[in-house]
Amino acid sequence: MQVEKAILYIIIPCYNEEAVLPITSKMFLKKLQFLIRTGQVKEESRILFVDDGSKDHTWDIIYELAKENKYYIGIAQSRNRGHQNAVLAGLMEAKDFCDITISIDCDGQDDLNAMDAMLEEYYHGYDIVYGVRAERKTDTFFKRFTAEFFYRLLNKMGAEVIYNHADYRLVSSKVLQNFSDFKEVNLFLRGMFPLVGFRSTCVFYERQERIAGDSHYTISKMLTLAFDGITSLSVKPVHIITEMGIFLAIMSFCIVIWSIVQYVMGETVAGWTSMTSVICFIGGIQLICLGVLGEYIGKIYLEVKARPRYIISNRTYEAERLNIEENKEQ
Fold first, then answer.
1. Cα 170 from Cα 128, distance rounded (Å)
2. pLDDT digit string, tens, across residues 108-127
3. How would DSSP label each residue in 34-52?
4. 8-141+159-218: which CATH topology?
5. For residues 275 and 259, what is the distance between their CA atoms, to the nearest angstrom?
6. Are residues 25 and 65 in contact, defined by beta-carbon separation less than 8 angstroms?
7. Per the database record, which ranges form the Glycosyltransferase 2-like domain (predicted)?
8. What's the pTM value of the predicted model, to 2 decimals?
9. So where are the chain's domains?
């Protein structure tokens, strides 16, 4: 049975990428044209850049690329909202105009040839294809150790994530239509897509060094992403706090019994050091528990406000987009 070829949108989030974008944009175009020429995707396929409120000339570069070649299109967020929101903006923008999307970072580290394998799996009936790093040879020991710890911790905490998968993935428009029903403001896409369901599989690839420019993922951003992933997808930390509270309550009760017995036997001795240690320990545990609970309450506060997750201020293809929407309505 002949499978109808799909319209592909390659979603590329960009933040202050003026150093690398002129280089990688040519790589993305070459890859898309190859996929079109070999009949793997349709001519209507596009490369969609998402400018995440860059402070350099990233949007100017995207705008010029769109003027030079029809395969380039772009949208710009009104301000910087973070990588996850930028990816989401691109996916939601593309879902009504394509059959499949492939999200990939702008830095050129992810292997573009993995797209061929992703498309092959899609045509075999898979709606989500995760790009998974086979190894972490290019990472420092610290980054490799923390990344592996991060994925293991997420799974231990009850969040369903694919080990060594970031945001390089193929997603069908059918999945995206259902994914649009997920309204939470606190985003952790690599943990949310498994929640949607549908048939999924993995494609393994090697990740290379960044082609140009500097990485925008600082240690603080990675830690924030990790904490967001845990608190957005799991309530297990709250369960741990409850279990810890029960354990400390039992311990405290035992200490009270022991103190009464010691008093009755007349063996009480003033113990400033031990008392101070116990007070400091319990006080520290309480502060940690209050901090975790505060994070959850803060997230509830943001969700209740229901503010938009992204605002698109500019498009390189506004007229074309309006024509497509009008044709769909007719």
1. 6
2. 788 888 899 999 999 998 99
3. HHHHTTSB-TT-EEEEEE-
4. Spore Coat Polysaccharide Biosynthesis Protein SpsA; Chain A (3.90.550)
5. 12
6. yes
7. 10-176
8. 0.70
9. 8-141+159-218, 235-305
